[in-house]
Design a protein that fits this description.
The structure holds two protein chains of two kinds. Helices cover 20% and strands 32% of the residues of chain A. By secondary structure, chain A is α+β, with helices and mostly antiparallel strands. Chain A has three domains: 12-59 and 151-244, 2-Layer Sandwich (Gyrase A, domain 2); 62-123 and 259-290, Alpha-Beta Plaits (2-Layer Sandwich); 292-377, Beta Barrel (Elongation Factor Tu (Ef-tu), domain 3). In chain A, the strands form four sheets. A six-stranded mixed sheet of chain A has the order 11-12-13-10-4-14, sandwiched between helices. A six-stranded antiparallel beta barrel of chain A has the order 15-18-17-16-19-20. Chain A has a five-stranded antiparallel sheet with strand order 6-7-8-5-9, covered by helices on one side. In chain A, strand 19 and strand 20 form a beta hairpin. In chain A, helix 2 (42-51) packs across helix 7. Chain B has one domain (8-106): RNA polymerase II/Efflux pump adaptor protein, barrel-sandwich hybrid domain (OB fold (Dihydrolipoamide Acetyltransferase, E2P), Beta Barrel), CATH 2.40.50. Chain B has helices at residues 29-35, 81-85, 88-92, 115-125; strands at 8-9, 14-19, 22-27, 38-42, 49-50, 55-61, 65-69, 74-79, 101-105. In chain B, a hairpin with a 2-residue loop joins strand 2 (14-19) and strand 3 (22-27). The termini of chain B are close together. The chains are: A alpha+beta, B alpha+beta. The A-B interface holds A 1-3, 5, 26, 37-38, 41-43, 236, 240, 306-308, 310, 329-330, 359 and B 12-13, 31, 34-37, 39-40, 42, 60, 62-63, 65-66, 125-126. Chain A: Its EC number is 2.1.2.10. Chain A: The glycine cleavage system is composed of four proteins: P, T, L and H.
Chain lengths: 377, 126
């Protein structure tokens, strides 16, 4: 049995730590940061995001600025996406790989100006991404700068997000499309206001620099959200929300040992641009993926029973192992245990009895379409 | 965290209440809070023989799995079907509606902790 008493040693803290403590959060070590795992309870937080709204502190995420006349060229070369084609004010989900096409991280890139991009890596990969960008930017007229320590990130997610945010901002929220982001003020503080998220719901992410302005924004949003049923939500709810939405998590669905094609996300790789790191390996991976002769495929699983199925458990078909679970949890929205798993790309999932080996017991599962949950638009 | 004074406890964060040779067993509030929201429970089956210290079931929260240990020797004579059906009650009422199973004792239990000893244990861990 664990307790969180020793969690604060040598961990980085966000600007919102005391706000979390005042809300009674359970704080844990996440990628070297002291982060809220849950407040009142992860199920209620999850449901709040699906039905009303949730407020997340995501300040552990990395922020790297790439600026200068060749900023766009650096990103086209360093990443798999065609980022010079992103228009100013828009964002793109993309990946960065090594020479072998193995995924170093998945990230969102915001184009703030012609010569100014914000790259947002996962907390655990922020150092890797920063180092790769610095190395790959050599010879280009561009500057790569780590702003993670000075930047706070708050996410407001859920169907009530627009109604909560509108009175606090100068922005006309109907003008901010999905995957767009602009500079605005929220609660009097300058922020980058982006319509992005990792929950499967409508919502916003607010990048706040300096981070010391974050508590004022957090408190204002909590207060404005109260009549709308807004709940502070922790990383535990964030994980079940993204799982239901079929979104990959680095370290589970995405690793250095897999290419984007293996993860079923080959669409993020753009070959209609110049040379980029990993190109040759990714062209081969694309070929394997097209004829299903190799590589892997991510599938969704839904358990028939109630016992949770989880990461790293073997997936069986007719008693033979055909894959391994990458993520799994009881789905608060669906009420059943769900999971994602990798299988060989050529595996026929339409026949046979599928089950998960849960510590020696077999729990019957059905192969289902991803995502498990899709909001009505 | 204060614990009910009328119960006995174990180092595995279970409570035991003995009445007429039958022990009622559950997990403590401390354990329930450390686990987080409980989503699945599998107590031992009625009729099973258990020995103190053996694992005899599982409690799962959204994030983790914990074994249930038998704190006493004897035969399982009842299982809380309501907790199996709605595991959340283990977290909301661990000493009441959230009990897990009952064992008819085959011998006097040993090594159970007093409320004071158990409180010291949790304070040491917390």
């Amino acid at each position: 049995m664990t307790s969180d008493g020793g969690a604060s040693a040598n961990l980085r803290e966000t600007a919102l730590r005391s706000a979390h403590e005042a809300l009674g959060a359970t704080l844990v070590d996440f990628a070297g940061w002291l982060m809220p795992l849950r407040y009142s309870g992860e199920k209620a937080e999850h449901t709040a995001v699906r039905e009303k709204a949730g407020l997340f502190d995501l300040s552990h995420m990395g922020e790297v600025r790439v600026t200068g006349p060749q900023a766009a060229d650096v990103l086209d070369y360093a990443m798999v996406g065609f980022l010079s084609k992103v228009t100013v004010g828009r964002a793109r989900y993309t990946m960065i790989t090594d020479e072998d096409g193995g995924v170093l991280d998945d990230l969102i890139v915001y184009r703030l100006a012609d010569d100014d991009y914000l790259v947002v890596p996962n907390a655990a990969n922020a150092g890797t991404v920063l180092a790769a960008l610095q190395e790959r930017a050599q010879g280009f007229d561009a500057r790569v700068e780590d702003r993670s320590a000075d930047t706070a990130l708050i996410a407001l997610q859920g169907p009530a997000a627009v109604d909560i945010l509108a009175p606090l901002t100068d922005a006309d929220l109907s003008e901010i499309k999905y995957y767009a982001g602009y500079r605005h003020t929220v609660a009097g503080q300058p922020v980058l206001l982006a319509r992005t998220g990792y929950t499967g719901e409508d919502g916003f992410e607010l990048f706040i620099e300096p981070a010391s302005a974050a508590p004022a924004v957090w408190e204002a949003l909590l207060k404005a959200g109260e009549p709308h049923g807004l709940a502070p939500a922790g990383l535990s709810a964030r994980d079940t929300l993204r799982l239901e939405a079929g979104m990959p998590l680095y370290g589970q669905e995405l690793t250095r040992g897999l290419t984007p094609f293996d993860a079923g996300l080959g669409r993020v790789v753009k070959f209609d641009k110049g040379d980029f790191v990993g190109r040759a390996a990714l062209e081969r991976a694309a070929g394997r993926s097209a004829d299903s002769s190799g590589g892997r495929r991510l599938i969704g699983l839904s358990a028939r029973g109630r016992r949770p199925i989880r990461k790293d458990m073997p997936l069986l078909r007719d008693g033979e192992q055909v894959g391994t679970l990458t993520s799994g949890a009881p789905s608060p929205t669906l009420g059943t245990p769900i999971a994602m798993a990798y299988v060989d790309a050529g595996l026929d999932t339409s026949t046979g009895e599928f089950a998960v080996d849960v510590r020696g017991r077999t729990e019957p599962v059905d192969v289902v379409e991803l995502p498990f949950y899709k909001r009505e638009r | 965290m204060s614990v009910p004074a009328e119960l006995s406890y174990t180092e595995e964060h279970e409570w035991v209440s003995i009445s007429d040779g039958v022990a009622t067993i559950g997990i403590t509030k401390y354990a329930a809070e450390a686990l987080g929201e409980i989503v699945f429970v599998e107590p031992p089956e009625t009729g099973a023989t258990v020995a103190a210290g053996d694992t005899c079931g599982e409690v799962e929260s959204t994030k983790s799995v914990s074994d249930i240990y038998a704190p006493v020797n004897g035969e399982v004579v009842d299982v809380n079907a309501a907790a199996v059906e709605d595991p959340e009650i283990i977290g909301t009422d661990p000493y009441g509606q959230g009990w897990l199973f009952k064992v008819e004792l085959s011998e006097e239990p040993k090594d159970l902790l007093s409320p004071e000893k158990y409180t010291q244990l949790t304070e040491g861990e917390g």
